[in-house]
Amino acid sequence: MLSHLGAKLAIGLLKLLALLPYGCIARMGDGLGWLLYQIPSQRKRIVHINLSLCFPEWSAEHREVIAQKHFRHAIRSYLERSVQWFGSAKKLEKLIQLDSEIDLRDPDLPPTLFLGFHFVGIEAGSIFLNYSLKRTCGSLYQPMSNAELDAAAKAARGRFDAEMASRADSARVVLRWLRERKPVMLGADMDYGMRNSTFVPFFGVPACTLTAVGRLAQVGRAQVVPFIGEVLPDYKGYRLKVFKPWDNYPSGDDEADARRMNAFLEQQIPRIPEQYYWVHKRFKTRPPGEPGVY
Predict the structure, then answer these.
(1) How would DSSP label each residue in 122-180?
(2) Tens digit of pLDDT for each residue in 29-40?
(3) Are the C-beta atoms of residues 166 and 143 closer than 8 Å to each other?
(4) Which pTM does this prediction carry?
(5) Contact criterion met (CB below 8 Å) for 139 and 130
(6) Tens of pLDDT along 132-159?
(7) What are the extents of the domains in the chain?
């Protein structure tokens, strides 16, 4: 856990980095990621375990290539918080391509849950989605353990008129936002434990998957619109891809809706496998009787 001084230094460093051209920041992060990948670590081990479980058909050589690329992306994403949190709106507009299948500025946008997925560009994608909506929206976030960093992240993520709320208050707050016709951004593709979750396949592996999205959509009478923040090649910036609303969702069947979410990910991840957040312990919670994998 960072000390008070460590957090202040980290925030100061991000503010300084934000003054640099994006390409410089991205290349620095890429190089740091390559360097850290050379050192044995728990996170590196988690990446390899996840890839082995999800893509057993891959050769060891291919898995190594994707693992290293992902590690470099993951470390790079932390340095790129600088421009994402502290860069101007004009700078973000130049860096982020918007590719949306719906009109984000539709004044008659129905109650909407924007469902984000944990690719390495999720931070840029979420902030720019909020900016592109041009209206107050709600956003759920996972609080950080350090108070200074948490305050900085909350302020940065909410700077384009977003109301921020902790995941701990999610159901009550999300339903209030939807009643107020505010779009809501949330993520649900991580292992948050068995509460409000079920086990459904993720690349053939039982994964503890949240069922709250379908229930919130049903109670709030909201459409669910997935989005992905992608990192563009050659240090060109990002693409925010906003998809069409899911048809027949929610279905009223929690398990079927959770399967739908994972199936969507199984379609998208193979396009850019190095960008999904493999450093997360996606299979931390196991079905009863199954041994841990980490």
Answers:
(1) HHHHHHHHHHHHTS-EEEEE---SSHHHHHHHHHHHTTTTEEEEEGGGHHHHHHHHHHT
(2) 999 999 999 999
(3) yes
(4) 0.95
(5) yes
(6) 999 999 999 888 888 899 999 999 999 9
(7) 4-275
